[in-house]
Give the backbone structure.
Amino acid sequence: MKVLLKNAKIYGGDTADILVEDGKIIGIGSYDSADEIHDMSGYAAVLPGVIDAHMHIVTGDIEYNDRALRSWAQAGVTTVRDLGMGNDKNDHPTQEFLAYRETIENPECAHCLTCGRFVAQYHGLNHVMSDGAETGYGCQTPEDAVNAVNELIDMGCEGIKTSIGRGMGGGQTPIETEKLKAIADTAKARGVWVTCHILDAEFVPALLEAGMPEFAHMPTDHVPDEMLKAMADAGVTCTPTLMSINAPRPPLPKGAKMPPMPGGPGGPGGPPPMMMKDPQEQEDICVDNTRRFIEFGGMVAVGTDTMRMESQPHVAAMPVRELQLLHKAGLTVPQVIDAATINAAKLCKIDGQVGTIEVGKQANIIAVKDPIDETFQALSHVEFVMNRGAVIKE
Ligand SMILES: [Zn+2]
């Protein structure tokens, strides 16, 4: 069946007709007939479906994930990338999610890429959570890390997530550079994306030494110019997840301290910088780091770090605030749209399939009634969504 989008004002391009068949764009130009025709002349802009390159699947709650993926698709976010499964005591969260994902491969849901479990330092960040749930592979040796990466990819995960930093309690040993290198090398050899959680500038040199191609988050303390330049020069990409910094955080019970991780060695070292500063001050620092990284030629993509926590009820929606903050960090409005589409597709290694409106690509197409300006408010109410060739909202 052929579907025609007539008179589409393609964002950053010309007004044209877009012809779609079997979920793909098969023509951009001038067409008159199709099995189904949608008049797009009333929309101010037609653009590719947005990609959120950093969110978290909540394991053990299929109902929540289902609701979230539908909500994203309705908002115009047609692809999301899970960067590490949430807090769960399930022994096999990765297999469970992969099996579930097959059941929701339909245009009503955002397509979800996943790294499955974290590949973590043994007793380090994201190995064991404060309540004892094991959320990652705890790697004691570089060989463990290689095995974990291979196991996840063999299972069907599209990429790998690791972490450097201290746990919430402070004092845990950060992952060693040789393990990070083993993770990065194995992922790269298998042709998948690999990204590393980082919040502290002090760990930037280790990630660069390990050849980590992508940073998940931008450090939230001041990163010196020479480090940002080294990142950009090395072709490192980044999802700064700026909107996650000043988001509501779960309050600690009165008088409570951050819990140490079970099994962690404890000892010296304080909590990571993100627990110390005023969130607004921290956001400003992170925006400034991002601004300078961009000035040095670094590529950034949209990610939100959306996850469900009882007191942080993020909704699965268009990340308008992230778009605004990336603009504040120096991207022009069209560059912000690129960060939310083609750049994010590149980070997820799916730029051959999505991220632009081009012949041969998947027909993930959204449209807005109001012109897109530096407030990005037009995107907060996407009125038309075609996901994988099917119109799911009009
Ligand atoms: Zn995250």
Notes: The chain has ten helices and 20 strands.
